[in-house]
Specification:
One of its GO terms (molecular function) is methyltransferase activity. InterPro entries: Methyltransf_25, SAM-dependent_MTases_sf. About 30% of the residues lie in helices and about 25% in strands. With about 200 residues, it is an alpha/beta fold. The protein has a 7-stranded mixed β-sheet, sandwiched between helices. The radius of gyration is 16 Å and the shape is globular.
Length: about 200
């Protein structure tokens, strides 16, 4: 998995726009900063934006190429982020905000449980995926979308008293640069874990 992501990031000197995701800004603005976990942080734009808003950020990615770029970008932005070279595993702590954007979570072992358990009581999970995607293009890059946990699967796993779904809807996006610029809609899931 790490080698696949390294190969993807090595194709270009920069893959993404360098701007935070629009859904992240829309959903997180107004939340009280605390601890945040960015799952699949890529080149670091979301983690950097969170840190600039006052969040204490831990950012995970399996790609050493992406993390090298993310560390350099964070240093340039003057923010401190705990970057970790790993995919999502069982975390030793829980977080006030867990952010997982696009196909960041493989359907392996207890990945869904690890994602939900990473959210602290009273905390927020924000998961976003493109509504439309080019399956053939993804497969060309060695990524099968069916191998990753979907937003709807996570929403279905939250059908219990311990979660309140705040948002589960399609949202338009306007991105003009970077590899995701051709996507015009995202499926956004924002949910809050109960305190008990």
């Amino acid at each position: 998995m790490a080698a696949d992501w390294d190969a993807r990031y090595s194709e270009e000197s920069r893959i993404w726009s360098g701007n935070p995701n629009q859904a992240l800004v829309a959903e997180v603005t107004g939340l009280t900063p605390g601890t945040a976990l960015d799952v699949g942080c890529g080149e670091g734009a979301d983690a950097i934006w969170l840190a600039q808003q006052g969040w204490q950020v831990t950012a995970l990615d399996p790609s050493s190429v992406a993390l090298e770029r993310a560390r350099a970008a964070a240093e340039s932005a003057g923010v401190t982020i705990d970057f970790r070279h790993t995919g999502l595993t069982r975390m030793s702590q829980s977080f006030d905000l867990v952010s997982a954007f696009y196909p960041a979570l493989p359907k392996v072992d207890d990945a869904m449980t690890d994602l939900l358990d990473a959210v602290a009581p009273g905390g927020t999970l924000l998961m976003v995926h493109h509504v439309e995607f080019d399956r053939d293009r993804a497969l060309e890059h060695g990524f099968d979308p069916d191998d990753f946990v979907s937003v709807d699967e996570v929403a279905a796993a939250m059908e219990s008293a311990s979660w309140q779904i705040v948002e589960h809807a399609v949202r338009n996006r306007d991105v003009r640069e970077g590899a995701g610029a051709h996507h015009t809609q995202d499926l956004v899931l924002r949910a809050t874990r109960s305190r008990s």
